[in-house]
Amino acid sequence: MYHNREILAVQQDEFTSFKQGSMSVMEAVKKFEQLARLYPELVPNEKEKVRRMIKMFRTDIAKQVSAGSSPPTLIADCISRAMKAEYWINQDTEARVQIFKAKKEEKAVEKQMQSRQNHESNSKGQTRPTEELPSKEEQSWE
């Protein structure tokens, strides 16, 4: 019996310390729901379930879910807000990636143009070989 209590305590710790991490909102919600079904005594009502769920989300999502004058009181509202937050965070991230790629491409084009200009100016600056002029010493002998 003692062994079972130990296992139960470890599993409860998994639930109380569960974090979204790199999972999507829906993946994290699914895992959260599975753990909540195993330990209903840890989430005895909707309010506690919402509180724990917000705590489980990544900080950037949790801030947006609980922001505003009326934080969510229902699980469905909490999940909806988290999904919207995740969507906009991903959109913002994608926009930053696109800007970074565009700047990187722009720098590559500039570098290529500069390289061409340098090559062209070096080509124009070269003259055809001419007869060597005599050195000052040679000139003095004449």
Give the DSSP E fraction (strand runs of 2 or more residues): under 5%
Order of helices and strands: HHHHHH
Total DSSP helices: 6
Query: Main β-sheet: number of strands, strand sense, barrel status?
Result: none
Number of domains: 1
- Tell how many strands the DSSP assignment holds: 0
N→C terminal distance: 117 Å
Radius of gyration: 34 Å
| Backbone shape | elongated
Helix content: over 70%
Describe this structure in words.
With 142 residues, the chain is mainly α. It has one domain (10-111). It has helices at 2-16, 25-38, 46-56, 59-66, 75-125, 136-141. Helix 4 packs across helix 5 (75-125). The protein is elongated and about 105 Å long. The protein starts with a helix and ends with a helix.
What is the gist of this entry?
74% of the residues lie in helices and 0% in strands.
Keywords:
single chain, 142 residues, mainly alpha, 6 helices, elongated
Question: What is the element layout, followed by pairings?
Answer:
Elements: H1 2-16, H2 25-38, H3 46-56, H4 59-66, H5 75-125, H6 136-141
Domain Retrotransposon gag: 12-55
InterPro entries: Retrotrans_gag_dom
Organism: Ficus carica
